[in-house]
Every structure is written in C-alpha cells, then in structure tokens.
Amino acid sequence: MTAASNKRPTTTRGAQGQDLDTLHAIGLALSAGPSRWTAMEGGYPIFRDGECLGGIGVSGGDWQQDEDIAKAAVESIGANYEQ
C-alpha cells in the first residue's frame, strides 16, 4: 500500500529524505496506523503506460534480495517500477 499510494519504492528514508535507523523506521510505520505505511525496503509501485496500477511488497530475505525479487516480479508482468 505504501509504494502504490506514494508512487515510489518503500525505503528507510523519512518524508524529508533523511535516513532512518531501524527503530525509527518501525516507529514511523506503527505511528501511521495499521496497513498505512512501511519504512522498509522491498516495496515497489507498479506502473504501466504511466499509470500506477498498484504495488508489490516482498520480505523474508535481506533488503537487497527483497528489492531484487520485487523488481523482477514487476518486470515479469511487463510493467515498470519507475514512473
């Protein structure tokens, strides 16, 4: 939901682009409310023909594995993860 609603990948950066440590990233997600925000890598929006169709979130590996799998999944359906 975070990647789709913000039309950008999820990350451990705050709204102003500052790096967040793990504790602050989790705090941001919890303070936003259930199913509202995640500040962890692995989420990407899905674009086709310039329109955001939704998003994908992957977890379970390290952050780089999660990102690689999410990107590959988006590309496998002929979509883009960048606008």
Automatic annotation (TrEMBL):
A UniProt-annotated Pfam family: HbpS-like
Protein name per Swiss-Prot or TrEMBL: Heme-binding protein
Lineage start: Bacteria, environmental samples
